[in-house]
Here is the input.
Amino acid sequence: MDVFKEQNVVRLQDSRDLGKKIIFGVTAVMIAATALLFTFGTMIMMLGLMITIGAVYLGYYLVTSLNIEYEYILTNGEVDFDKITAQRSRKRLISVKLNTAVDFGKVEEGKTIEDADTYVTATANDPELTDYYLRVKHNGYGDTVIYFTPSEDMITLMKHYFPRELRS
Here is the structure.
């Protein structure tokens, strides 16, 4: 029997993201306004309009690029972690085979795992949800720790593919 489960997790924005959005927006408006002011009544008015339109578009692109969600796809013992930016681009963060798992558990406040080669963060950044970590031996990245926010269904399906010592 094939197992397939997909879960999307929207990353909540924090104060740093809000600050970046404000800076990007204000900068885009200032560049657009400056370009418009200096081009009225001159021969390079078309260039000023193009700079204005470009600045507004760039500001929009940068502001919306802070809207991030993560997708976890479980397919027959392999989990793919993807990052989706503004619902316009998708990037594969990592693919792992669950039978290579070394450790799995809840992320505890103040406790960090410091001796891994690679860290991948794909969490919801939501204090109301529980974050988990998965430590695996990856062929390309070595000892890897993945932080993510799976649902209970996803955890139940993943546990079937863990090595025997991690299933409990």
